[in-house]
Specification:
The chain has about 625 residues and is of the alpha+beta class. The protein has 3 domains: about 160 residues, Spore Coat Polysaccharide Biosynthesis Protein SpsA, Chain A (Alpha-Beta Complex); about 240 residues, Spore Coat Polysaccharide Biosynthesis Protein SpsA, Chain A, CATH 3.90.550.60; about 170 residues, no CATH class. It has 17 helices and 24 strands. Strands 1, 2, 3, 4, 5, 6, 7, 8, 9 and 10 form a 10-stranded antiparallel beta sheet that branches. A 7-stranded mixed beta sheet has the order 13-12-11-14-20-15-21, sandwiched between helices. The protein has a 3-stranded mixed beta sheet with strand order 22-23-24, with no helix packed on it. Helix 11 runs antiparallel to helix 12. The longest helix has about 35 residues. The protein starts with a helix and ends with a helix. The N terminus is likely disordered.
Length: about 625
């Protein structure tokens, strides 16, 4: 057993012995070497040795846990939980000063408590009564001529009168190695897995996780705590909902939470500790989400909190005052740390890691069978209508593939558009003319950019929304196969390695940079339409980077190779006036249908929602009637 495993098991025993619950552990490095230590503890002066379970500060040194994983999110605990104080606990070897520090909404620090320690256990208490608008807690260690070692660190709160249980649900589809790695990360941290009843893996793939040697190792470690289920592919919503159904069924009258986790994340097991502990104290049943950190850029947070504009069919907007996609180890121009001091509210939270109490599911039903995309958004906004808040908790995070490195021209876009319309119909006034105009603008951009397959994908999404709830009868299986087949007839949807790009050899592929965004949009729009229809374009061919592939630039080419967002190759777009006209006509026709039939379609979706989200419908889809 490693030092980490010994350390991480200790808080569970101490909680039982002291009547206090560990709600956050003090960790000083990441679960893998690729994660910068500055995400956990920062060396301000002198030298320090950072390890997962301890930090050793040399003479005349100073370190701070005012970091992403080192802070205690006091504002969120004061706003959403019944806890009234929190205690920092740790074991000191050597000698030095331990300072409990706090911040306010603007990041201005203050000192809460100071203790000069020498080879002893330290306990520093802070009331949670001055953080309603924002602020966090952390510790700073200062040494003179002796070194100091801090270990066995934990933040504790008086144990709740009625403890809640937690089970983890992992949904996977043909990412067997990734899923096995996530399970391994959890199994290697018994301090985290000791807090959960079960880890339920719902495998919907044809390349099963159980075929990997790592799975056998994990199974031996976790034993009966691991439950492995196989079922046909019903997408992310079907996989997570199957796990949620198992948790709800098993829980009975026991207060229990289902903790969703993606299969392909770089797992920080501490997320289990922080989400499950926060849920123990929420004033009301609450959907609690972790923040997403970018896998390729591990010090970047996607967003402190997000919301959707349902009438515009868009999500992923950063809540006002939240940390946007930026480096949380950096400092702002005013000298404050780029951390989430201001408390911000979330409209929804992603299912890369999200906790749902069984009481919420019993009150408002299961997720919609949307296959994937917008299922997490819809569930949170449905929760709002039922008085269930959604909280995205700072400092609870794991790493997921960077969204900007995923290309938009993909079959997934069908589900994004169709499910956005369904969510808007269910949880907004669904202004059909505005929605149609929004989709019309998207359609125009796709056509001018020679994204003909993407334009056809949009048209199909609108048609299936208008077709009504029957399109969800099979949970999205038929729609997935059909949209993939339809898109295969459009050559520009296929990514090619740069050396194999058809008809575009290196000598014929000059890089053509984009100009600035046009100010007279309507005039440029009209001009580009004429250029694309007549063929009077400035450039016969060229190569354009993914970040410059805007419609006003793409419309200047007869043929263009566009770098895929994942940087693995290019997609070749070829001007086709006849295809532009045909898709333009078809798109105009279906959007006119949306204007005329949209209200009635929205009404059918609202009427069908209780049946679609009911347990009987899901049991039918799971094949467990």
């Amino acid at each position: 057993m490693t030092d980490l495993q010994t350390e991480t098991m200790r808080p569970a025993r101490s909680a039982a012995a002291t009547g206090r619950l560990v709600v956050q552990r003090g960790l000083f490095t990441g679960p893998v070497p690729e994660i910068p230590d500055e995400m956990y503890v920062e060396v301000i002066a002198g030298h320090a040795e950072r390890r997962r379970a301890h930090v050793r500060v040399g003479p005349f040194g100073r370190v701070s846990t005012n970091t992403y994983f080192g802070r205690f999110p006091a504002a969120y605990w004061q706003r959403w939980t019944t806890a009234r104080s929190v205690r920092f606990e740790g074991r000191i070897r050597g000698a030095g000063r331990v300072m409990l520090r706090a911040s306010d909404t603007n990041g201005v620090p203050r000192t809460v408590a100071v203790h000069d320690a020498e080879a002893e256990d330290v306990r520093l208490e802070a009331r949670l009564d001055r953080f309603l608008d924002g602020g966090g807690l952390w510790v700073e260690l200062v040494t003179d001529d002796a070194e100091l070692l801090l270990e066995d660190v934990r933040w504790t709160v008086e144990a709740p009168a009625v403890p809640r249980h937690t089970s983890i649900v992992i949904c996977t589809h043909n990412r067997a190695d990734d899923c096995a790695a996530t399970l391994t990360a959890l199994a290697d941290d018994p301090g985290a897995t000791a807090l959960v009843d079960e880890i339920i893996v719902v495998d919907q793939g044809t390349d099963p996780v159980e075929s990997r040697p790592a799975f056998d190792v994990v199974s031996a470690v976790l034993g009966e705590q691991l439950r492995y289920l196989r079922q046909p592919n019903l997408g992310g919503s079907g996989g997570f909902t199957r796990g949620l159904h198992e948790v709800v069924t098993t829980a009975g009258e026991v207060p229990t939470d289902a903790l969703f986790m993606d299969d392909d994340v770089r797992c920080e097991p501490e997320v289990v500790v922080r989400l499950s502990a926060f849920a123990q104290y929420t004033s009301h049943p609450t959907i609690v989400g972790a923040q997403m950190l970018n896998l390729l850029h591990p010090t970047q947070v996607l967003a402190g909190a997000e919301y959707a504009v349902l009438e515009d069919l868009t999500n992923g907007h950063v809540s006002p005052g939240a940390v946007g996609e930026s480096d949380v180890t950096a400092y702002l121009p005013d000298g404050t740390k780029n951390v989430q001091d201001r408390r911000v509210d979330a409209g929804y939270t992603g299912w890369w890691s999200c906790l749902i109490p069984v009481e919420v599911t019993r009150a408002m039903g299961y997720p919609l069978p949307l296959f994937f995309q917008w299922d997490d958004v819809e569930y949170s906004y449905r929760g709002r209508a039922h008085g269930v808040p959604t909280v995205t908790l700072p400092g609870a995070g794991l790493w997921h593939a960077d969204f900007p490195w995923k290309d938009w021209d993909d079959w997934h876009r069908y589900f994004n558009l169709r499910n956005a319309m369904i969510t808007s119909a269910l949880h907004s006034g669904f202004p059909v003319r505005h929605v149609a105009a929004t989709l019309g603008e998207l359609l125009g951009r796709y056509l001018l950019s020679m994204n003909y397959g993407l334009a056809a994908t949009l048209i199909r999404a609108v048609e299936d929304f208008l077709a009504g709830p029957d399109v969800l009868r099979d949970g999205g299986v038929d729609a997935t196969a059909r949209i993939r087949a339809e898109r295969s007839s459009y050559p520009e949807t296929v990514m090619h390695p740069i050396a194999e790009a058809p008809t575009l050899g290196p000598a014929q592929m000059p890089v053509v940079r984009a100009g600035g965004k046009p100010t007279r949009t309507k005039a440029v729009w009209a001009k580009r339409i004429v250029q694309q229809v007549t063929g009077r374009v400035p450039f016969h061919e060229g190569l354009v980077g993914a970040g410059e592939a805007d419609w006003w630039h793409m419309a200047l080419f007869d043929r263009v190779a566009v770098t895929d967002a994942g940087q693995a190759g290019v997609r070749v777009r070829q001007r086709d006036p006849e295809l532009l006209r045909r898709l333009g006509r078809n798109g105009a026709a279906v959007l006119w249908r949306l204007v005329r039939e949209g209200d009635a379609a929205a009404g059918r979706w609202r009427a069908a929602a209780p049946q679609l989200t009911g347990v009987d419908n899901w049991r039918r889809l799971f094949g467990i009637d």
